[in-house]
Amino acid sequence: MTSDDTTLDASAPWLEVDALIDDPRTRIVVCCGSGGVGKTTTAAALGVRAAERGRKVVVLTIDPARRLAQSMGISELDNVPRPVKGVDEAAGGELHAMMLDMKRTFDEIVEGHADAERARAILENPFYQSLSAGFAGTQEYMAMEKLGQLRAGDAWDLIVVDTPPSRSALDFLDAPKRLGSFLDGKFIRVLMAPAKVGGRAGMKFLNVGMSMMTGTLSKLMGGQLLRDVQTFVAAMDTMFGGFRTRADATYRLLQAPGTAFLVVAAPERDALREAAYFVERLAAEQMPLAGLVLNRVHGSGAAQLSAERALAAAEALTEDLADRAPEDAEEAPQGADDDPNSPPGEAGSPLAENLGPDGIVDLADGKTGSRTPGGPSPAAAEHATSPSAPAAQLAAGLLRLHAERMQVLARERRTRDRFTALHPEVPVAEVAALPGDVHDLAGLRAIGDRLTLRPGATDD
User: Which InterPro entries match (predicted)?
Assistant: First the structure.
């Protein structure tokens, strides 16, 4: 453990991100995790870093927010990979980015596996339009379908996938199988049974079945729904087996050695609980886990000053102010070198007399000041080491803010340690929080640099 006790515990292996993205055997990196933990930013940062280290990269995002396009300087993202300008290609790499268009991907499947007349009949079918636009699991299935297309095309040697924001790993891992099962020939034969039965009984059976499948389909009612389903099935009867086959092939692709899953989380209890579930589910499904990316980890440049000592020092300053208040009211001496109006921290100001080398008031011993070697005698320094009221109030406030920051650090450390205790085999990379939002390539590079910092190192 380092002196500031804020970096990874020695028992947690370090995630070597550069080694992962530099390895030519790594062909797919899947960033997964709960919503709001920085998956999109992590995926984009990995893409930029890998491209500038010589890989030909495409980043596929499924996030409906267009932050990825904005951060990469692209006016818009769509279902076609777009080149990202401003990336350093000196090492021979390049970067493209795209955003999944769920319906367009489904349309491409139809167009690629049916003749023109049959494809038109399918694309114009109301049942198909509801299915392709809003059926549960369609987004995740189409993300995996697009991943399979990109991998088969072999135009890029690294594909970085930003998965949909899901409340559970089950949504992402099970959706391809769920949609494949829905489009399986056996299910479709059951679906077509009411048409053969006919009459009100058949319609009742169909409506009950539809209501169990999805709320989207409940918008289409009555005999028109039955006719739409019949037309849809008649047009797609030769394609259903292909959906199941592709879903199975994509699932196997996710299990292949060239795929690496990165679980992204924030140093918060709920996010790390979800991350632990992802880790366990990936292991159960034999998916190759590369490690955990812990985003937005707070730090401090004065971690040697604990929260307890900072609060004690602030309290000492407050008490000193209270004791001096009556005396200061009667007599307020002011010298040329002791100007209470001088900005805190400038030479000659009372606060500057008490600043340590790290810019923190030197109150480590819990007293209001300390004598430096070569300084004035204790008697002569008694007044100089007592900061003026404004400076003391400022110092006390800063000390309390520092104490709050150290308490945040301690809480994050405890949360992280609970995860590493449960999963000591999982490599972890900690990404220090940036002072602002990431909105350009420079910010993505900064994230990439922090992704690869070893525990205890700094990015100065």
Answer: ArsA/GET3_ATPase-like (IPR025723), ATPase_ArsA/GET3 (IPR016300), P-loop_NTPase (IPR027417)
Find out whether 11 and 248 touch, Cβ atoms under 8 Å: no
Cα gap 403→302, rounded to integer Å = 11
Residue 337 lies in a domain: yes
Does 417 fall in a domain?
A: no
Burial-class residue 149 by CB neighbours within 10 Å (0-12, 13-18, 19+).
Answer: middle
Does any domain span residue 427? Answer: no
Classify residue 60 as exposed, middle or buried by CB count within 10 Å of its CB (0-12, 13-18, 19+): buried
Domains identified in the chain, total number: 3
Same domain (yes/no): 234, 271: no
Query: Is residue 294 in a domain?
Result: yes
pLDDT tens per residue across span 294-309: 998 888 888 888 889 9
- Domain residues for the domain of 231 are 189-238
pLDDT in tens, 113-150: 788 888 888 888 887 887 777 665 677 777 778 888 88
Torsion angle, alpha carbons of 37, 38, 43, 48, to 10: -150
How many residues in the chain? 460
238, 258, 277 — which closes off a domain?
A: 238
Q: Burial, 229: exposed, middle or buried (Cβ in 10 Å; 0-12, 13-18, 19+)?
A: buried
User: Measured between alpha carbons, how far apart are the two ends of the chain, in Å?
Assistant: 21
* Close Cβ partners of 311 (under 8 Å, ≥ 6 residues apart): 399, 400, 403
Verify that 348 and 221 share a domain, yes or no.
no
Tokens of 60: 């596929």
pTM attached to this predicted model: 0.73
Contact status, residue 31 vs residue 42, Cβ threshold 8 Å: yes
Closest to 305 (Cα-Cα) out of 432, 404, 387:
404
Instruction: Tell me the CB-side half-sphere exposure of residue 299, using CA atoms within 13 A.
Output: 22
CB 399, CB 253: distance < 8 Å: no
Residues 379, 446, single domain; the answer is no
